[in-house]
Amino acid sequence: MMGDTEGIKASNGYDLSYEARTNIMDSSAVSLANKLRNIVVRNLQVILIILGVALGFIIGLSLNSHVQSSRYDREERKKIVMLIGFLGDIFVRLLKLLIIPLTITSIVHAVASLDTRTTGKLGRRTVIYYSITTFTAAIIGIILVLSIRPGDTSVQHEKFEMNHVDALDSILDMIRNIFPDNLVESTFRSTQTAYKDDVTFIYNTTIPDRNIRGSLENLTKFLDNNVYDPWIVNETSPDVRVIKKNSRKVWAKIEKTDRMNFLGMITCSIVFGIALSRLGPEGQPLKEILDVCLKIVMMLINAVMWICPLGIGSLIAAKLVEMENIGSTFESLAYFIVTAITGFAIQGLIVYPTIYFICIRKNPFRYLLNMQAAAYTAFGTSTSAATLPVTLKCVQELNQVDSRVAQFILPIGATVNMDGTSLYEAVACIYIAQLNGYNFGIGKILLTVFTSAAASVGACTVPSAGLVTLIMVLEAAGLPTTDVGLLYSVDWFVDRFRTVCNMTGDAIGCAIVEKFSRKDLDEYAPL
To answer: Counting CB atoms within 10 angstroms of each CB, which of 362, 395, 523, 527 has the fewest?
Structure first.
């Protein structure tokens, strides 16, 4: 009776009994515990990835001085680094294994699910977005490097003779790769213009037999019977060109390189998807097969994600252990690193969210928060291509972007939309100009913006690819390429932030293009 009376009093506003208060507190604690457990379960992969990144830094920094000490010779250090990075190597291999089936099935499936008119509109909107963000990134980089002026600090470094890179050849190589001559070959090889230095310098410094010098015929005979490539001395060959005749000759030839031709695969997939879409009901069985294949690939991606924490931690630890002197390297280039990372932060945390908010009128940081797994994977692997499976998973499943838009835009973005690379190359170009005492006028600055943006489009989706195209930007600006070697020591670190910026731009682009394409998508085939 007493309990009933107290219960009635409680309902009328009187104080609850001790037992009632205890029960409420217990139920509140259980409810809070359940909420926390649900949050942990939902975000378990992301939590584990964060722990993997932190563990990678801790292990790498703690083992660096021990491994780099005099007790180990060079070969032993390489072996230790290989063992530390072994799990990371396996993880990257598994991601790369899924790139081809994911790219082909997702693009063909997405394009086949739309009509030609809708695909064309998606393409145009994607190009507009990519162009705006790429040039914006380059402009931000220019503003920062001119304001901070990291190149004015005294940096002692060696000069490195870098390979020649020609802007026209790079553009033509990109166009050639868009139209592959062999679809199967494009999955593991691409076309690239190769360059070699003046052969006179080579044989004068490496060939001990003086009797063969002074004659091109004698030199050709020698090269034919030795390990040197004979094509670099054959000016009459239609495949060989001399593209530079100043103090030395540079010989150029179009060759096949062991690198995946992403552009060719994307082009063939889009064309195949358009043809399948125009087939109508006849192509429905193949569409269903592609749908099943895509689901299988996504299941495999989910499985691979569970070793992501170990893989990323292993990659980061191996890179840190490999560095000979972490402190001095980062100290000498501290201003450059700060300038570049500040630019990536502005692009990723201000520019992208602003564009997202203006176009979609929603909280952009909730969208970015759902991309955490892709961001950490990009940071660990340092390649947009290997991150593509995780990016697609986050965009589709967590941010609920239309699968047709995500499957169409993300593979293209991972290949050509390199906003972080555009920003980095603009910063690096002006940085090297400041190191050498060059003063850039408005004309050279505009040239740097355009060449940085153009070079980022042609950058391949592999780690540190931006350094290769940076040579092209430097030569277009008339700057020495010998200082690029200075950036190699920290590029592995900056490249990770660069890749995160690239991935974020692709992910935000999916949401924006979907917003402006919603009417077209619903009219053709609503989900």
So the answer is: 527
- The topology under which CATH files domain 51-189+260-524 is Proton glutamate symport protein (1.10.3860)
- Do the beta carbons of residue 472 and residue 357 sit within 8 Å? no
DSSP string computed for 283-308: GHHHHHHHHHHHHHHHHHHHHHGGGH
129 within 8 A of 513, measured Cβ to Cβ? yes
Instruction: Check pLDDT > 80 for residue 62.
Output: yes
If one counts every other C-beta atom within 10 angstroms of the C-beta of residue 455, the result is: 28
**CB-based contact 388:427 (threshold 8 Å):** no
Among positive and negative, which fits the CA dihedral 510, 511, 516, 517?
A: positive
pLDDT at 295 over 80: yes
* 503 vs 418: CA distance, rounded Å: 8
Contacts of 248 (CB under 8 A, 6+ apart): 197, 198, 201
The pLDDT, as a whole number, for residue 209 is 47
CA 316 to each of CA 82, 153, 345: distance values in angstroms, whole numbers, following the listed order? 12, 29, 20
Q: Is the pLDDT of residue 153 over 70?
A: no
Band the pLDDT of 526: cuts 50, 70, 90. very low
Q: How far apart are CA 289 and CA 109, in angstroms?
A: 9
Average pLDDT over residues 447-460: 78
SS (H, E, C) 18-49: HHHHHHHHHHHHHHHHHHHHHHHHHCHHHHHH
Cβ atoms of 413 and 130 closer than 8 Å: yes
pLDDT higher than threshold 70 for residue 410: yes
473-494 pLDDT, tens digit each:
887 777 777 777 778 778 888 8
The alpha carbon dihedral of 119, 120, 126, 129 has a sign of negative
What radius of gyration do the chain's Cα atoms show? 28
Backbone angles phi, psi at 241, to 5 degrees: -130, 150
Task: Identify the weakest region by mean pLDDT among 73-87, 89-103, 151-165, 396-410.
Answer: 151-165
Question: In the chain, what are the domain boundaries?
Answer: 51-189+260-524, 193-257
Chain centroid, CA 448 distance in Å: 21
- Torsion, Cα of 404, 410, 412, 416 (10° steps): 160
- The DSSP code for 150 is G
The DSSP result for 216-257, as a single string, is: HHHHHHHHHTSSS-GGGG-TTSTTEEEEEESSSEEEEEEEEE
- Per-residue burial over 21-58, b if 16 or more Cβ lie within 10 Å, else e, is eeeeeeeeeeeeeeeeeeeeeebebbebbbebbebbee
Q: What is the pTM of this model?
A: 0.76
